[in-house]
Write a structure and sequence with these properties.
Blueprint: H1 2-12, E1 16-20, E2 33-39, E3 54-60, H2 69-83, E4 94-97, E5 102-106, E6 112-121
Parallel strand pairs: 1-2
Antiparallel strand pairs: 2-3, 3-6, 4-6, 5-6
């Protein structure tokens, strides 16, 4: 999980505040962009002891920031493109997106959000 987080953060940089699981909203982070990472399980370990954990990357923009939806989708698209290249989390044989981007959508605070799931092969 930590290696995957480092891979995502290494690409997206300091624009986002990273959390493993749900982010914590507070009055002090009205302008904060969040990257919430969720471990989603994955298929059973096969007979060759190959593991394929899945992770969800959820990007969320600042409050009252519906206008940031396109930037969030573009950031997720850049992660998908990165997964098609040679850059992999430590020890991984491959990283791939498991589908297309979900969203954009909006929270009740008008934070734009979108997500995509990745599978890592070890």
């Amino acid at each position: 999980f930590n290696d995957f987080k480092d891979w995502v953060a290494g690409h997206l940089g300091s624009k986002y505040q990273y959390s493993m699981g749900a982010w914590i909203d507070a009055p002090s982070n009205t302008n904060t962009w969040f990257c919430a990472l969720y471990k989603m399980g994955g298929p059973a370990i096969d007979s060759g002891e190959v593991r394929r954990p899945r992770y969800r990357v959820l990007l969320v923009g600042p409050k009252s920031g519906r206008q940031h939806a396109a930037a969030i989708v573009a950031d997720l698209e850049s992660l998908i493109q990165l997964s098609m290249g040679d850059t992999k989390p430590c020890g991984a044989a491959s990283v791939r997106a498991l589908g297309e981007i979900v969203g954009p959508a909006y929270t009740t605070e008008n934070r734009a959000w979108a997500s995509v799931d990745f599978q890592i092969t070890f």
